[in-house]
């Protein structure tokens, strides 16, 4: 693979930083975006502007896709006249950094394979911004081929997740954790504010204790099989008691917290089970039983 031609489709916040980092790493870069002002701005720092996504594909051996959603990906790739697939070079590689889903990865990979010229597609969503991206690659080590060195130039970590589509799925798990945690912390601070607490002091307490990251640490210890660490955590009955007390405080100050109510319900049920005296991370086994309707794979 000729790794000297790199295309970037989409010049929003992520795509712009990606193009800038590739240029800084001295890769010749071609860019396209439906907003021509973005293309012009990036051209001023050395990128080659493309009049269409097809033209970009015709001059790029590695193509990064950085678009807002799967619908935009399909529009940019599939257009019969101006789409990326219409101009895809032999042995080219499409690296899709959009946040998509496994179905999108399977669909696009199939469409690329149908061209029959050896071109390939890989899902590779990201966290952060170039040049310090964490890239979640839908495949095993080696799937990027010689393009791996290009991705390394704009990333701090490359994580090979296993198979096509697994990169997108891993990113969606990441988003679940990130924004569900945001909601839980935000609801807790609304409760603190309504209770008349000194918010800077509450925030300091969270930052200096196990509050924000403790739950994440416990579940990761469980899934990584670190039994010694798991055994050090408080029992389910203690957590159930704490959740009931927190819910009573929320009720007393007129706050409804969906995340807190879910915790009260779950740990209350776990406390009534055989897991009552076990370290609370082990109750994850119950969660898997109660919240899973079908097993995939």
In words, what does this structure look like?
The chain has helices spanning 13-24, 36-43, 53-58, 70-78, 102-115, 148-152, 166-194, 199-208, 211-223, 227-230, 236-252, 258-271, 284-291, and strands at 6-9, 29-32, 48-49, 62-65, 93-96, 120-123, 126-127, 133-137, 155-160. The protein has 297 residues and is of the alpha/beta class. It has two domains: 6-163, NAD(P)-binding Rossmann-like Domain (Rossmann fold, 3-Layer(aba) Sandwich), CATH 3.40.50.720; 170-290, N-(1-d-carboxylethyl)-l-norvaline Dehydrogenase, domain 2, CATH 1.10.1040.10. It has a six-stranded parallel beta sheet. Helix 11 (236-252) runs antiparallel to helix 12. The radius of gyration is 24 Å and the shape is elongated. The protein starts with 5 loop residues before the first strand and ends in a 6-residue tail after the last helix.
Query: Overall mean pLDDT score?
Result: 95
CATH class of the largest domain: Alpha Beta
**Helix/strand order, N-terminal first:** EHEHEHEHEHEEEHEHHHHHHH
Cα shape: elongated
Describe the main β-sheet briefly: 6 strands, parallel
Strand residues, percent: 5-15%
First-last Cα distance:
34 Å
CATH superfamily of the largest domain: NAD(P)-binding Rossmann-like Domain
**Which class best fits the helix and strand makeup?**
alpha/beta
Q: How is the CATH topology of the largest domain named?
A: Rossmann fold
List segments where confidence is low: pLDDT < 50 over at least 5 consecutive residues: none
Number of helical runs? 13
Strand order of the largest sheet: 3-2-1-4-5-6
Helix content: 40-55%
Q: C-alpha Rg, in Å?
A: 24 Å
CATH architecture of the largest domain: 3-Layer(aba) Sandwich
């Amino acid at each position: 693979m000729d790794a000297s031609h790199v295309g970037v489709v989409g010049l929003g916040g992520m795509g712009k930083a990606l193009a800038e980092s590739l240029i800084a790493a001295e890769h010749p870069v071609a860019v396209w975006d439906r907003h021509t002002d973005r293309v012009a701005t990036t051209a001023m720092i050395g990128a080659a502007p493309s009049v269409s996504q097809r033209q970009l594909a015709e001059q790029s051996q590695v193509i990064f896709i950085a678009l807002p959603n799967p619908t935009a990906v399909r529009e940019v790739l599939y257009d019969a006249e101006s789409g990326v697939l219409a101009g895809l070079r032999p042995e080219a590689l499409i690296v899709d950094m959009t946040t998509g889903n496994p179905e999108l990865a399977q669909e696009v990979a199939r469409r690329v394979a149908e061209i029959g010229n050896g071109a390939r597609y890989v899902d590779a969503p990201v966290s952060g911004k170039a040049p310090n991206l964490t890239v979640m690659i839908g495949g095993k080590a080696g799937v990027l081929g010689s393009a791996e060195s290009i991705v390394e130039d704009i990333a701090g970590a490359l994580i090979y997740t296993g198979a096509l589509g697994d990169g997108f799925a891993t990113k969606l798990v990441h988003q679940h954790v990130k924004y569900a945690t945001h909601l839980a912390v935000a609801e807790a601070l609304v409760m603190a504010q309504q209770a008349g607490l000194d918010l800077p002091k509450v925030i300091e307490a969270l930052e200096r204790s196990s509050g924000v990251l403790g739950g994440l640490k416990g579940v990761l210890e469980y899934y990584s099989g670190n039994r010694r660490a798991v055994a050090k955590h408080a029992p389910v009955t203690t957590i159930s008691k704490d959740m009931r007390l927190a819910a009573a405080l929320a009720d007393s100050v007129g706050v409804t917290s969906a995340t807190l109510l879910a915790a009260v319900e779950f740990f209350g049920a776990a406390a009534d089970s055989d897991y009552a005296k076990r370290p609370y991370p082990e109750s994850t086994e119950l969660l898997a039983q109660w919240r899973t309707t079908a097993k995939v794979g």
